[in-house]
């Protein structure tokens, strides 16, 4: 059997023959050497060649339909970092001509180092002072798995025979999808395969999925959900009051990590795995259920009396957010309510959620025709929104515009007219 052509995007499909399943390359797409540097480009189909057969998969999947889940891989993507994608022929089109920015995957002089962390395995620790807003790193996924194939679940049915048949079919499809995931890993460049196998693995009977499940991030791309494996991101441990935040740019398949607060040399860099704006009990339960560990961060280690105060402050932030969104207050009172909200975010160190408070405060001061306070909160909101959702997010764009010329915005003009 011929070897796959180098620097080509290969489409591999599951096929069944005489009870034995084979993975074959159905199409060979445009070689990356003929395209600008390192984008993921789809082109015209070329000659087919075969890959060694894998373990028999029973009856296999239906062939040549847009619903087949297939493996696409590009060893030359992102400067040779490579990527494997498990999805359908229809959805792979959205990845055409993706080009990561030049700074993505540049780990030549990172501002951190990996160290053993007591009770956490390993983590990333700052080696120099990082200021709020500093980019810590940016990376691209090495694996993207379509959530429709790997999300699990299914509808309940009252008919026992139908339920049993559905369960057998679901187990069969799960087996095929696991084989696809294993194949996707095997098609990565050797350096990325080593990074994948060095990831933390949960206890289980599938070496590939036992690494994907605890390390994958949910990524939203063009209206669809994928699970992405980014090895560098997987080294960041959880904290309910994190000092870093990440945002994903679907257009370039780039995940960016920025400092939320100043980080001193020797301090661990952390992100949050859950919404931190919850009570301590809710946070602990969410982390146990999804990741199986007991959080011991500073917010979860407070004595009972301080935990109760913290929980009340968190609940109050939710109440004030809803109050401002519903517009319950008179126009002149909204700035005071917004200031109270921002103060609670600061006291609770909820920097990951503070952007919403600053956005509401900027709008409230704008509606009150208060120039300097509008300017102050709009600048804070623009920065925080860009860190949280990217510079192109609606809140970041709106707040940057408001910070530039408050008097020209609709909220200001409405206040003047009234």
**Fourth-tier CATH superfamily name of the largest domain:** SET domain
What string gives the helices and strands in order?
EEEHEHEEEEHHHHEEEEEEHHHHHHH
Question: Beta-strand level of the residues, as a percent range?
Answer: 15-25%
Distance between the termini: 77 Å
Main β-sheet description = 7 strands, mixed
Fraction of residues in helices? 25-40%
Mean pLDDT value: 79
Derived structural class: alpha+beta
The count of strands amounts to 14
Question: What is the CATH architecture term of the largest domain?
Answer: Beta Complex
What's the overall geometry?
globular
What is the top-level CATH class of the largest domain?
Mainly Beta
The total number of structural domains is 2
CATH T-level topology of the largest domain: Beta-clip-like
Radius of gyration: 25 Å
Strand order of the largest sheet: 2-1-3-4-8-10-9
Number of helices: 13
GO molecular function, one term: methyltransferase activity
Protein name: Lysine methyltransferase
Pfam families: SET (PF00856)
Organism: Metarhizium anisopliae (strain ARSEF 549)
């Amino acid at each position: 059997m011929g070897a796959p052509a180098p620097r080509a995007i290969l489409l591999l499909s599951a096929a069944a023959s005489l009870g034995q399943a084979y993975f074959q390359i159905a199409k060979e797409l445009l070689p990356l050497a003929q395209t600008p540097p390192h984008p993921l480009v789809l082109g015209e189909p070329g000659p087919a060649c075969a890959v060694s057969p894998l373990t028999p998969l029973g009856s296999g999947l239906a062939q040549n339909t847009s619903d087949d889940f297939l493996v696409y891989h590009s060893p030359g993507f992102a400067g040779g970092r490579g990527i494997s994608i498990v999805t359908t022929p229809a959805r792979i089109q959205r990845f055409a001509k993706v080009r990561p920015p030049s700074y993505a995957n540049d780990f030549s002089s990172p501002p951190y180092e990996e160290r053993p962390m007591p009770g956490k395995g390993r983590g990333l620790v700052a080696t120099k002072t990082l200021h709020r807003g500093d980019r810590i790193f940016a990376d691209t996924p090495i694996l993207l798995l379509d959530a429709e194939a790997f999300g699990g679940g299914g509808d309940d049915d009252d008919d026992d025979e139908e339920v049993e048949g559905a369960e057998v079919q679901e187990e069969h499809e799960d087996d095929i999808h696991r084989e696809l995931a294993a194949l996707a890993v095997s098609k990565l460049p050797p350096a990325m395969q080593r990074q994948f196998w060095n990831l933390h693995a949960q206890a289980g009977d599938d070496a590939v999925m036992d690494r994907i499940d605890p390390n994958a991030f949910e990524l939203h791309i063009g209206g669809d959900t994928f699970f992405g494996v980014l090895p560098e991101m997987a080294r960041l441990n959880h904290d309910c009051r994190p000092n870093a935040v990440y945002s994903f740019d679907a257009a370039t398949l780039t995940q960016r990590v920025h400092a939320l607060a100043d980080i001193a040399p020797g301090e661990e860099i952390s992100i949050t795995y859950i919404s931190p704006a919850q009570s301590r009990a809710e946070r602990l339960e969410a982390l146990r259920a999804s990741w199986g560990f007991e959080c011991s961060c500073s917010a979860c280690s407070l004595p009972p009396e301080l935990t109760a105060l913290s929980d009340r402050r968190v609940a109050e932030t939710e109440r004030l957010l809803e109050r401002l969104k519903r517009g319950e207050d008179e126009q002149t009172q909204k700035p005071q309510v917004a200031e109270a909200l921002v103060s609670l975010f600061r006291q609770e160190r909820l920097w990951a959620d503070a952007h919403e408070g600053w956005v509401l405060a900027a709008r409230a001061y704008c509606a009150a025709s208060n120039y300097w306070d509008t300017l102050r909160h709009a600048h804070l909101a623009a920065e925080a929104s860009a860190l949280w959702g990217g510079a192109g997010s609606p809140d970041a764009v709106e707040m940057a515009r408001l910070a530039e010329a408050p008097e020209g915005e609709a909220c200001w003009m409405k206040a003047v007219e009234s």
